[in-house]
Recover the amino acids of this structure.
């Protein structure tokens, strides 16, 4: 950002670790599979696709000689899950007879986040349990553990409808939430680092008519008959491109009916709720319109913007199953009749305590030949109790794989360099890509080891994806000699994988901590701050350097490692280089003999890769959800040119930040003839930790091998810091 931020003051917003979610029927998040925006069908997470993360086999056979100590079950959505005893045996390396004996005697322990969960043995020799969607900002999956020890089976109550009078419930109160899958250009909304990073389109602006409004049509399953009142809640997030000026003003309509106008000031999350009549719902669909109705004078530009991040509907729903499943809340009457099953219902559960469901027995099923469907009648109603009814086809399937506990940091001399790869269950092609670097570093006397990040999660965050588990891993291993960590894999801000999958261009393969930036002039971004994970004792100074190769392409990893080895084998690394970047990386960079732009890093004249130090804003922005990245990152993966490593900001820095970091970085060379790149960056972090706010300091990211050797420039060399 250079001079444009020279006199601006950054305001630290802190690390916010809890994501806002809607809690809905059955204790989980019930999302409809699709909604329509401006005539185009847009998918929503939760209603379609597989119920676990990963591109490999759902059930992974245990390969080690010793059997697994426990089996990991991973799942995305709240619902009734089924895993066969044979799948548990295959994943755990256990004898099927042993698992069957354990199941029949209650000796299967099911836990999640330290809490014991109740399970039941299904009719097809399977383990049935109620799984709950994750509530973490970073984890796209919840994790449940099965071990061969005394567990808790579901209790049972009588649900026979015989002898009851007074009829059945006609409807129940349903709540359904919707999230978008689009990516806003600004991404991060300054201090709002706890908001989801995917949203609905578009950004609402008052400046042009085409940006003022948008229509969203959503499906509400099995809407009850008659006329009654429902509610809609809209979550809006407002921000400014420049200084705060003027109010935000949003008009919300259902169909042609204006529900109300909301006006507010400042950057904030705004939750607005309105009541509406069921007559606004047609064929189980409702259309909501959001419009920016702020008026502008002829000379005024519109710096006030807002986006739609969530919709929530509460309405009366009939007792009708969708995809052979229904979750509901008990009504006033004690009997409930549910229709619409295409297969005979197998189970009814009382979910009033979701981690310890109760089986409702003796319900009555019948087949209706006219509609070719099944129905169930059960004594399950009254008060605020929650229930679930499902046939075999209405259950979900988790991913299944075994695990053994690891003892960390017990070696007197552990690895000095840890290379952390994405979960092999998500992507199995990263390990081979980094093995050549492991062999080289071990051959040079730098003890190096590859770690599957899932093993780290299993030990430090109960299996849940969490970047802070990497910090705990670093703290545990530091006493055994750990000094360098390389995270190999992209780390986009779509932590929950709502927009991208594990094979997409910028998936969240290894999540990054985030911090919000806010400048008094109005600019602000969400910074990726990997470097803070190296602060193992919380004193603000990192002890271990954290670097990253931010890509979801294993072949790109192989490219940068090949360039790293070639760089060290050549004499080119003896020639010092200083590179600079300006606002938005639109300027040019040179090595004294050639010129390149951010899109021309592979020019033939740029024949020798080098280390790029780009002390400008967003030069190393790799956490976005698009293929556009900063020049410092783009140059890493050019096969015959570009950069062998780069140092730059994932967000915004001030002009004097870049100057101070550049001086501190190069001053690390004063003590020795050669120094490793990670040691240079670590030294600069430590030198400036009490001088630059950490959301700016740790936005300066090292992409590349932290153990790369940098040679001290010859005496008399002048290095310019721009």
């Amino acid at each position: 950002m250079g001079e444009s931020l020279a006199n601006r003051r950054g305001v630290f917003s802190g690390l916010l670790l809890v994501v806002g979610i809607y809690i809905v029927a059955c204790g989980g998040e019930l999302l409809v599979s699709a909604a329509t925006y401006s005539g185009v069908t847009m998918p929503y997470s939760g209603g379609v696709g597989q119920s676990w993360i990963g591109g490999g086999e759902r059930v992974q056979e245990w390969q080690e000689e010793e059997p697994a100590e426990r089996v990991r079950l991973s799942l995305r959505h709240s619902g009734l899950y089924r895993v066969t005893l044979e799948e548990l045996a295959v994943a755990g390396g256990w004898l099927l007879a042993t698992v069957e004996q354990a199941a029949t005697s209650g000796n299967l322990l099911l836990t999640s986040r330290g809490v014991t969960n109740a399970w039941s043995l299904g009719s097809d020799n399977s383990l049935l349990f109620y799984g709950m969607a994750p509530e973490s900002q970073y984890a796209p999956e919840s994790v449940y553990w099965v071990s061969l020890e005394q567990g808790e089976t579901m209790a049972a109550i009588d649900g026979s409808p015989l002898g009851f009078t007074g009829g059945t419930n006609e409807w129940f109160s349903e709540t359904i939430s919707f999230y978008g899958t689009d990516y806003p250009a600004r991404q991060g909304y300054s201090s709002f680092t706890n908001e989801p990073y995917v949203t609905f389109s578009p950004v609402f602006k008052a400046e042009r008519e085409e940006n003022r409004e948008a229509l969203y049509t959503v499906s509400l399953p099995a809407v009850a008959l008659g006329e009654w009142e429902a509610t809609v809640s809209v979550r809006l997030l407002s921000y400014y491109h420049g200084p705060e000026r003027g109010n935000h003003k949003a008009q919300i309509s259902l169909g042609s009916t204006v529900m109300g106008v909301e006006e507010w000031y400042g950057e904030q999350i705004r939750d607005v709720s309105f009541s509406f009549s069921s007559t606004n719902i047609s064929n189980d669909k409702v259309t909501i319109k959001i419009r920016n109705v702020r008026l502008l004078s002829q000379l005024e530009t519109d710096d006030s913007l807002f986006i739609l991040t969530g919709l929530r509907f509460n309405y009366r729903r009939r007792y009708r199953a969708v995809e052979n499943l229904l979750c509901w809340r008990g009504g006033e009457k004690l009997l409930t009749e549910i229709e619409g099953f295409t297969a005979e219902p197998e189970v009814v559960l009382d979910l009033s305590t979701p981690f310890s469901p109760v089986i409702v027995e003796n319900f009555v099923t019948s087949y209706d030949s006219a509609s070719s469907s099944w129905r169930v009648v059960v004594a399950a109603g009254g008060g605020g109790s929650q229930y679930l009814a499902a046939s075999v086809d209405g259950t979900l399937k988790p991913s299944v794989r075994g695990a053994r506990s690891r003892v960390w940091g017990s070696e007197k001399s552990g690895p000095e360099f840890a290379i952390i790869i994405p979960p092999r269950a998500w992507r199995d092609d990263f390990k081979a890509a980094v093995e050549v670097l492991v062999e080289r570093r071990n051959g040079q006397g730098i003890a190096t080891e590859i770690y599957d990040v899932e093993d780290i999660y299993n030990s430090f965050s109960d299996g849940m994806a969490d970047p802070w588990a990497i910090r705990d891993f670093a703290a545990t291993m530091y006493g055994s000699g750990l000094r360098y960590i390389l995270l190999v894999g992209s780390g986009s801000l779509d932590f929950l994988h709502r927009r991208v999958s594990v094979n997409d261009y910028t998936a969240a393969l290894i999540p990054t901590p985030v911090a919000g930036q806010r400048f008094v002039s109005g600019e602000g971004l969400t910074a990726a701050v990997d470097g803070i994970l190296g602060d193992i004792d919380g004193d603000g100074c990192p002890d271990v350097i954290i670097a990253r190769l931010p890509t979801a392409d294993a072949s790109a990893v192989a490219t940068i490692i090949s360039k790293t080895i070639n760089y060290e084998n050549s004499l080119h690394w003896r020639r010092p280089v200083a590179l600079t970047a300006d606002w938005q990386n639109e300027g040019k960079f040179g090595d004294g003999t050639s010129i390149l732009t951010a899109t021309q890093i592979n020019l033939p004249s740029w024949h020798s890769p080098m280390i790029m130090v780009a002390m400008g804003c967003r030069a190393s922005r790799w956490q976005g959800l698009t293929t556009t990245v900063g020049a410092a990152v783009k140059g890493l993966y050019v096969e015959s040119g570009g950069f062998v490593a780069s140092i730059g900001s994932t967000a915004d820095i001030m002009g004097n930040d870049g100057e101070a970091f550049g001086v501190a970085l190069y001053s690390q060379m004063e003590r020795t003839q050669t120094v490793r790149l990670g040691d240079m960056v670590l030294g600069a972090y430590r030198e400036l930790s009490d001088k630059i706010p950490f959301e700016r300091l740790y936005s300066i990211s090292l992409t590349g091998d932290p153990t790369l050797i940098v040679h001290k420039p010859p005496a008399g060399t002048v290095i310019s810091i721009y």
Q: What stands out?
A: Confidence is low (pLDDT under 50) at residues 1-48, 581-605, 718-722. Residues 351 and 357 are 5 Å apart (CA to CA). The first helix runs from residue 85 to 92. The longest strand covers residues 304-317.
